[in-house]
Design brief:
Elements lengths: L14 E4 L6 E9 L5 E7 L7 E7 L6 E6 L11 E6 L15 H15 L3 E4 L3 E2 L15 E5 L19 H10 L8 H19 L4 H10 L1 H16 L16 H9 L1 H21 L4 E6 L8 H5 L8 E5 L9 E5 L4 H6 L3 H11 L4 E4 L7 E6 L8 E4 L2 H15 L2 E4 L9 H7 L4 E4 L14 E4 L8 H6 L1 H8 L6 H15 L7 H12 L6 E5 H4 L27 H6 L1 H16 L1
Parallel strand pairs: 1-5, 6-7, 6-19, 7-10, 10-13, 13-16, 17-18, 18-19
Antiparallel strand pairs: 2-3, 2-4, 4-5, 8-9, 11-12, 11-14, 14-15
Length: 585
């Protein structure tokens, strides 16, 4: 990790305090600069009424300033919340208006229909994180360029201010985009070309953009500027930052500053795209609670890795050890933060990332929440069987998460499936972070699930109801040359049969409805059905352990348009099964 024997500056590491605990002492007289700019004089003891927030302790003896974080005792959770919702892969949710993949306009329509017709309370989304602005486009939402900013492919171009003006060729682009809906597999490269061309023409007529964009850039500050500069550099060089000329490989380089000045128009364009995404996401979330998804890491060649390269461990990647569903383990190809460097940075990357994930959201799911406790590091060139766990400053990270959750008024879900060390789930419960329960993994009935959980039948990495019930999931694994856990899969099918009480020859739609009726018995805070299961989709969105050469993960569109979904009796039946239980509770 490159750490000296004694980490210099450790005395200036952030001081993190949870409300309700005794206030820590400080050495010597100091000033306490509150987040709102007010300054308090302190001498050894901190005042007991310091508000929630990010403050700063300034020693009067000339010592190093120290961040002082005051966080609530637990994460935010609305009282008496009991809701149901859809779990949706937004890219797969296409309407007749979509340009080859689902967008934020489609999300807004799904939200309004789900509330109005079925009384849903949430939509649980895949990560909407930004990919590198290059072709080929990265299909995996869990391998983002940045977790702080979003993917322009999700923009509804027709909703961009000025798009309806006479004389603009948006309709020509739209016709080409809608033609892409004819194919079941999503062609992100084609979508990218069309949307970037259309958005480029719109920008050319609106540059430098409205006053709202200027305010947004000021509000977002350095983070947005670095991201926009990265995007312009990536377009210029046509690759990830590790292959750029040396003068552009670090954001603090004078050459990067010169490039940003010389290409200010393109930098502003990428900032404008994020402003549009921010606005469209805010409108999509007005009808109900959007639960966003925070990926465990980011692309080592992407924007966040470029901006924070000095805080990362090089020569290792994050992954997971072998388990029953990935017999060889997993190497996710994501560079980890070095714990002591993250602490020395005042946890700024973590704060910015969590805050971005909660923006315009009523909740956030944290992928592989065990990463707040420890991460499995895999040496480059080794297999996932050769990794080791590295611990992280859990207490501090959970405190920051609680603070950001409280400020956003949003619940937090921890994806705690797979290899979970003892004590993690108990700690999540104490922090009021919802644990995750999946029918496939539970031996007992949903009625016995705890209250403080998010419960579902399956996830994007696990078989759909149809895939499990018909055996097509095992057949697909064999077709792509995967090692399959046949015995474990058959046990899941037996469990599904016993839970639903249906015979082996029962139709898949009947099985899907029956298992969701059982799920509705859960007393849990939030339950969800995937649109894939409601529509009888056989393919799971992602088959862990495979790449694009073997299987088109994250690229299957739903077999029906959003308009068809709204009138499909199978979807309505599943929604009413979950919603009826919630209405009676």
């Amino acid at each position: 990790m490159g750490a000296p024997r004694v980490v210099r500056g450790r005395e200036a590491a952030p001081l993190v305090h949870r409300q309700g605990a005794p206030f820590p002492a400080i050495a010597g007289p100091a000033e306490l600069r509150l987040e709102d700019g007010a300054i308090l004089g302190v001498d050894r003891g901190l005042p007991p009424d310091v508000p929630l927030g990010y403050h700063e302790i300034l020693p009067l003896d000339g010592g190093q300033a120290r961040r002082f974080i005051v966080a609530p005792a637990r994460c935010h959770l609305p009282e008496k919340l009991r809701a149901w919702g859809w779990a949706a892969q937004l890219y797969a949710l296409r309407s007749r208006e979509s340009w080859g993949m689902g967008d934020l306009g489609d999300l807004r329509r799904l939200a309004e229909w789900s509330v109005g017709a079925l009384g849903a309370g949430a939509i649980v989304l895949n990560p909407l994180h930004a990919a590198r602005p290059l072709i080929p486009q990265e299909p995996s939402p869990y391998f983002p360029s940045s977790r702080r900013y979003r993917n322009p492919l999700y923009l509804r171009v027709e909703d961009v201010p000025g798009a309806a003006a006479a004389g603009l060729p948006v309709e020509r682009f739209a016709a080409e985009g809608r033609a892409l809906n004819a194919e079941r597999l999503i062609d992100r490269d084609a979508v990218f070309r069309l949307k970037m061309a259309a958005l480029g023409e719109l920008w050319a007529r609106t540059s430098p953009g409205p006053a709202g964009l200027a305010r947004y850039r000021v509000q977002q500050g350095r983070g947005l500027e670095e991201f926009a500069i990265f995007c312009a550099l990536a377009e210029h060089h046509g690759s990830g930052w590790r292959r750029w000329p040396a003068e552009h490989r670090h954001p603090a380089s004078p050459a990067v500053a010169r490039f940003a000045t010389e290409h200010s128009e393109r930098v502003a364009f990428h900032a404008w795209l994020q402003w549009l995404l921010d606005d469209q996401l805010a409108r999509a979330g007005q009808a109900l609670r959007l639960v966003t998804d925070l990926a465990i890491g980011f692309d080592g060649e992407g924007a966040d890795a470029w901006a924070w390269q000095d805080l990362l461990a090089h020569g290792v990647m994050v992954g997971a050890p072998p388990d029953d569903f990935a017999l060889d383990g997993q190497d996710w190809g994501l560079p980890p933060f070095v714990p002591y460097r993250l602490r020395a940075a005042g946890y700024a990357p973590f704060i910015e990332t969590v805050r971005a994930g909660l923006r315009h959201a009523g909740g956030m799911r944290i992928d592989h929440v065990m990463g707040l406790f420890r991460l499995y590091w895999v040496p480059r060139g080794a297999t996932a069987r050769d990794g080791a766990y590295v611990r992280y400053p859990t207490d501090d990270l959970l405190a920051i998460l609680a603070l950001e959750s409280e400020r956003a008024g949003a619940l937090v879900i921890g994806e705690d499936l797979g290899t979970v060390e003892p004590g993690v789930r108990e700690r999540l419960l104490a922090e009021r972070i919802l644990s995750t329960r999946v029918v496939w993994f539970e031996s007992g009935p949903p009625a016995a699930y705890p209250r403080l959980v998010f419960a579902a039948v399956t996830t994007h990495d696990l078989p759909t109801v149809r895939g499990l019930w018909t055996g097509s999931d095992l057949q697909e694994q064999a077709a792509v040359g995967m090692r399959s856990n046949v015995e474990g899969t058959e046990a899941l099918r037996t469990q599904l049969r016993e839970l639903t009480g249906l015979a082996d020859d029962a139709p898949t739609d009947a099985v899907a409805l029956a298992v969701h009726r059982r799920l509705a018995e859960a007393p849990s805070v939030l339950i969800a059905a995937t649109l894939d299961d409601a529509l009888g989709v056989a393919e799971r969105p992602n088959l862990p352990g495979t790449t694009g050469e073997r299987r088109p993960n994250w690229s299957f569109a739903l077999p029906e348009t959003l308009e068809q979904i709204e009138s499909d009796p199978r979807v309505r039946a599943v929604g009413e099964a979950l919603g009826g239980r919630r209405a009676r509770s």
